[in-house]
Amino acid sequence: MGEKSESDVSPVPRFNLSREEYLKMDPVEFRARFRERLHHTLEIQTYAAIHFGKALSPEQTKTVETLLELWQERGLPADLPDCRWGKTILQFARKTQTGETVDLSPYATKPVGKDGYELFRRIVGERRSVRHWSDREVPDSLIDEILRTGTWGAHSCNLQSVRFAVVREKNEPGLFRGADIPGGPVHLVALQDERVYRANPLNPVRNRLIDVGAAVQNMVLAAHALGLGGVWLTFSDAMLERLYKRFGLPEEVKIVTYLDVGYPAQTPAPPLRLDLDETVLVRI
Ligand SMILES: Cc1cc2nc3c(=O)[nH]c(=O)nc-3n(C[C@H](O)[C@H](O)[C@H](O)COP(=O)(O)O)c2cc1C
Asked: What separation in angstroms does the CA of 85 have from each of 32, 66, 201?
């Protein structure tokens, strides 16, 4: 018979590593593995147990318990969000195991209602790519809020790969030269730490750009909702090379895409979108 193809012989990825492996691995990868294991070995199962009465075995909490011990052993701060989230889910799981009720009412989302939906629809429909800005300075608080909405994007396996670089044009004029739009007042660059994807080699590579896209779509909407105008832009190879040099990022951190934002000095009309009768190709 013919030789085996590469995919036939590639090893099955290992998710549960030895303590030694967990202790010596890169901290970014360790935390991503923590988030991935938490998501796939406990979070999903715990909600299934709570909502559909699926039994949660006594063993189910083991992986996360071990990882929390390793978190401590590695000297990582206990107040980091992923650690706190791990403890919350663990608490839900333990209650479920002992037949206690888990009160999820504090997390119940309030319906946004008709007015809320109309506002949402306005934000989605009225957001425009704005390519001219006034000189008014954008406060750091607004920039941080936009970035925060980026971190709340959905992300495959909750790996949380998205990072940012923030550059005010006035601080480094011309750094982004070569773009369609010269001199946007604030450049928000979406980066991606590829180390996190080592946590789940089964996660298809195509998810990676989508992870960044989900973050940046939140950000353009947030910019608009905050009264700013933004445009999503494209790097040339020369710009990318210049930015890698200037940012001095770790090798595994990639520059993916960027936005310019500022106070708008133009009011573009909406470029109309195709109708649903052209865009829905399958409806079963
Ligand atoms: C990934 C991506 C790259 C883009 N690159 C550019 C660009 O290089 N220059 C530009 O003027 N607009 C760019 N845009 C903005 C689009 O031109 C714009 O979204 C589109 O024309 C629709 O207009 P609207 O955003 O106002 O709805 C980009 C948008 C995306 C999502």
From this structure: 13, 15, 23
Q: Is residue 211 part of a domain?
A: yes
Of 44, 65, 97, the one marking the end of a domain is 97
Are residues 89 and 150 both part of a single domain? no
Which of 40, 69, 97 is a domain's end point? 97
Residue with CA nearest ligand 1 atom 29? 232
Cα of 39 from ligand 1 centre, angstroms: 34
| Residues 83 and 76 sit within 8 Å (Cβ to Cβ) | yes
Beta pairing partners, 191: 163, 255
Residue 11: band (very low, low, confident or very high) from pLDDT cuts 50, 70, 90? low
Ligand 1 atom index nearest CA of 179: 8
Q: Is residue 279 part of a domain?
A: no
- Say if residue 65 is in the same domain as residue 150: no
Q: Is residue 105 in a domain?
A: no
Domain of residue 246 covers 113-262
Which atom of ligand 1 lies closest to the CA of 130?
A: 26
The pLDDT tens digits of the residues spanning 140-166 come to 999 999 999 999 999 999 999 999 999
Can you tell me the mean pLDDT for 42-63?
93
Is 102 inside any structural domain?
A: no
Dump pLDDT digits (tens) for 120-129.
999 999 999 9
Separation between Cα atoms, residue 101 and residue 210, nearest integer Å: 37
State the DSSP code for 39: I
Give the total number of structural domains in the chain.
Answer: 2
Mean pLDDT of all residues in 249-271: 97
What percent of the chain is predicted at pLDDT more than 90?
A: 91
The span from the CA of 37 to the CA of 20, in Å, is 17
Which pTM value belongs to this model?
0.94
